[in-house]
Each structure stands twice: as C-alpha cells, then as structure tokens.
Amino acid sequence: MAAAPISGILSPHMVPLDDRGRIDEAELARYVTWLIDRGVHGLYPNGSTGEFTRFSVEERRRIVSVVCQAAAGRVPVVAGAAEANVAETIRACEHCLEAGARAVAIVAPFYYKLSPESVYAYFREIMQHAPIDVTLYNIPALASPIDVATVRRLAEEFPRVIGIKDSTGDISHMIRLIAAVKPVRPDFLFLTGWEAALVPMLLIGCDGGTNATSGVLPELTRALYDAVKAGDLARANALQHRVTAVFDPLLQGADFPEGVRVGVGLRGFRMGPSRQPATPGQLAEREKLAERLRGLLADCGVRSGDPAAAARV
Predict the structure, then answer these.
(1) Fewer CB atoms near the end CB (10 Å): N or C, the chain?
(2) What is the CATH number of domain 8-232?
C-alpha cells in the first residue's frame, strides 16, 4: 500500500492532562477525532505546541501510540521524535514506525547552538539508522538553525529526508530554501509553522502548514488552505487576517503554549493544569485571555465549551 501523502494543514496539537497531571488518553483520542472531523489534513504530536520537553521518553512514546490509534489511518501522523541525543532519537524513530506514524519530525540539536557542519553530522548519523521518513524541523529560536545549504545537502544524500517544517516565518528564507532544494528533490515537502504568513507561504510554494491555531480553529485554517488552492485569493486574504487575529493572542497572551491550552479548553476539551507552574497573577491573566478568545470564537460563530459547534468561516 502506498504511503499516505503529506500536505495541507497538520495540527501540532496539545495533550490533555488529568487533574493529577497525567496524560488523559481518552480525552486525547477524543480531541484527535474532533480535529480530523473538523478537516485537518494530518496530525503533528510531540512538537513545540505539544510540549514534548515536558513529557518523559515513555510518555512521548505513549502519546504517539494513542494519536496513531485514534487517527486509524484517516490522516497521516508526522510524530515528533526529537530527543537529546542521536541514540535516543533513533529509538524514538523506531517506536514511531511501530506505532503507525507516516513520518517523524526531528528538530536540530537544542540547548547547544551548533555549527552547520555539526547540524549536518547530527542528521547524517540519524539518517544512516532511522527506519522511517524524516522531516527536518527548523526553529532557530529554540534550537540550532538548519541552514539552506545543510537542507539541500541532506535532501541530496538521503531520500528518506522528505521535507522540512520551518517556523521562522521568514518568507524570503522560504523562497531561497525552495529554490535551492526543489531542483534536486522535486518531491520535497515544505511546511510553514508560522500561520501569520500562511497565505503568502502557500503562494510561494509551501505544501501546507503545521499551525497551532489549527488546534483551536481547525475549520478556519482548513478554509484558508482550501481558498488558496481554489485560487480565491480575496477569500484567502480575508481568512488570513482572521487567522492572525486568533494566532496573536494564542502566541502572545501567555507563555507559549499556554494560550493554546486556554483556546482548546474553550472548544470543549478538558485540558487539565499545565505542568509548568503558574503564579496567581499569571492565572488571572489567563482568565482575561479566555475572555478575549471567547470573543474571537464568537466572531466565528462558535459558542465556547461546545465541541459539537462548528466555526462559521
């Protein structure tokens, strides 16, 4: 059977927790099903929005298993497989394959900011052993950057490096990246992690996005993608402004990704308390953020707390 294609809106979703801070597997499965029913093209567990660093190795593996089981092949799962060293990352890749993921996403080494040659060596070692397709994850705000030359080098040498998610939001960088890699790998996948520029990113050649806003308003991000693909740029641009209006408070209204947790909760999911402690003042600010997001949801025709309600886009 041919591998599921990857394109469109992949949701880098959060993980619901119970009152004791444990993974709420039933709620996670319910959330995954809801996202698929609301039109996302794929799922992206264990990414930055999914707080992968706040879970143990065993928990990260369990998250992938639950998500793949809930997705049941309806959409591809591109699972975060980044660990703190090569050996653990390869083991994560092996588990993702066993769990049923279509591919994995691997961020460049974090904590230490490495040279391009060291970043290349890191991925080269992984690709010599990983049993599953790999998408690179470039997020220089949190990890070593993967420069254009390194992406092209890896794409040329390793057919299983199938794409990249770039979260810089830099359109000129994406143009250079596509221009450098497409001639040697016409099938290479380009995803943007920055929905405030989703329309222009799609227009210059990106295949889709992995966007946190899709975890709160999947209907809106899907409608934007469809409008671009249909050539309806007036509608696409109008939807872009609406996406950005939601994205900004999700990102800036609280320490990321706490704004996303608030937003998903407003759609009717029990997200539980964050593993990151908060002061009383921060909790009060999140209540204010919730009120702001309720207004934005209402503008989309959504009554907060009702997961059965679909956004009007």
Answers:
(1) N
(2) 3.20.20.70
